[in-house]
């Protein structure tokens, strides 16, 4: 038996008692579940990240809410400061309503725009293998080899706990004796590693046998920072770069690929700059982070010379080809054109 007929509230959002620099854990989902257990109906205002399957709430809980036929979204505001002045809640805030006695169409995939919902219905990938996410590398793609630890047994103490054998963001500063500004002419093979130092992107070199093998090392790829912008819909991506074989990156970057030819990587780079692809990225990207999962609703294209898209054309023309391919309406095209910023 429920204790209450109706529950309304603004529950605490996160646990701020975390120690040792850990990120605060979300707790609003626990309060939502408690409200649902205590009352027949509940109206709550919370962070909206879970609607986009983002943030730190569990993937299973996110799925349950989005598939719940008693649950609906009654209000969404991407800019939290419009609701709570002086706040910056990534992904915005949402007012949701759950009523055990009512039936609604499950939310499924949530977007804030009717036009984007319409586009998504036309182009949504049939499965993971048809999504651009299938080309996105996992976190920590580039890792130190056993040979490296034989030559630098103290390295793990320098880098810090929890990083394992990954080439992490502070690796250039932590192990300056391992990396060089130029590839030494000593007969060894070297990898060119992208990272950041003093607020700017730089490349340094490390011996090839110090990095464990992966599918991307000896292929062409496109590299992009894993954190980009603020999560605003249609914002540009931060300087995606085409990288040749024997090029890699620290763990704050993701890689798209791998490709056998430079031409395929160049085609993928133009696709990432298209308004079409970035509009579909905006279905799930509502924070600064863009890991593999947020690319799941961007359709995978054929980037070879035999593609139905002429990737040699300017990005604006590639957009027009994609709109024709997927049968977008004038209203849908106008929405993308006016809401997604152009990239150079």
Helix content: 10-25%
Side-by-side strand order of the widest sheet: 1-4-6-5
Oligomer: single chain
- How big a fraction of the residues is strand? 15-25%
How many beta strands in the DSSP annotation? 12
Shape: globular
Please state the structural category.
Answer: alpha+beta
Mean pLDDT across the residues is: 93
Radius of gyration: 23 Å
Question: Which stretches of 5+ consecutive residues score pLDDT under 50?
Answer: none
How can the largest sheet be summarized? 4 strands, mixed
Q: Tally the helices: what do you get?
A: 10
Question: What string gives the helices and strands in order?
Answer: EEEHEHEEHHHHEEEEEEHHHH
| Spatial gap, N to C terminus | 60 Å
